[in-house]
Amino acid sequence: MTEKNFTISSITDDQTAVAIREIREAGSSLGMVHNMLKNDTFPGDAENRSGELVVLAVRKATRHVIELAKTLGIPSEEAEEVTRRHAAIRKANLRIRDLESQLGESVTPDKVRQAIKSYSKRINYWWKVYGFGHVRSFVFEEHIIKVSLSCLPFGDFAIIDSKTPVSDKERRALWRKSLEARGILLAEDERGSRDFTPVDCDQTREALTRIIMAAFPTCRITSFSSHVAHDTTLPDGRIHYTLRDIEIIIYSASEVAALPLPEERFE
Fold first, then answer.
1. Is the separation of the CB atoms in 229 and 189 below 8 Å?
2. Contact 243, 198 (CB under 8 A)
């Protein structure tokens, strides 16, 4: 480490201001240590806590002294050690990013497509079993998955030309009961294309929130959207709103991967 001649006249106004700031911060920390050592009567746990504070204060003061030396251009073994440590950390981080890049490049586009297809099937099947049956959109982004869940009651039934119309009607009745059992308030839809619709109310939102959070504990529900219902078909004759969509953001892809595929079934 080469020593250089240091003169007060060689430092700039900015260096002076920074140096004074570092001296003030270091002095504050050392002053606290001085007072604690001077008044060294601490009972039990207080002594342990005070000891920890002394260590933290000394380390903080050391950092400010190192910054002071760097600011004034005074060589310091401690400063050089910090620089070496930071360089090693940067090198390790670059290596990690390089390995991540290599791993990403080793995955073929076809494998990526198959994985996304599998995730989409899992989401769709889950919403058919626990929700209303139709997922409007499923978008993979770099760190999140955005999903738009339709609240139109499609269910897991053929829309037209069903091969099992009688059993579909029976299953649809059971499906409706299961939705109501989960706390979802439903209303008749006499003029719409569906025989019932979910009512937008606190009870329904809370029930759907429970269903969604049970599947995706780390997700965030960003919005519920609704529109005025075709008919005032609530028992008390009130005009109500019908839920249309729920927008959610899933932060953990592993939660989607944990959902079963149609052939695996839910337990």
1. yes
2. yes
List the beta bridge partners of residue 148: 137, 247
The DSSP output letter for 240 is -
- The DSSP call for residue 10 is G
Which range marks the domain in which residue 140 is found? 110-257
How far is the C-alpha of 92 from the C-alpha of 124, rounded, in Å? 41
| Contacts of 233 by beta carbon, 8 Å cutoff, 6+ apart | 187, 188, 189, 190, 240
pLDDT (tens digit, 9 = 90+) per residue, 98-146?
766 766 666 677 877 888 888 899 999 999 888 888 899 999 888 899 9
What is the C-alpha to C-alpha distance for residues 178 and 230, in angstroms, rounded to an integer?
24
Residues near 129 by beta carbon (within 8 Å), at least 6 away in sequence = 156, 266
Same domain, 98 and 123: no
pLDDT bin (cut points 50, 70, 90) of residue 48 is low
In a domain, 2, yes or no: no
Q: Among residues 73, 90, 105, which one ends one of the domains?
A: 105
Q: End of a domain among 105, 132, 153?
A: 105
Q: How many domains does the chain have?
A: 2
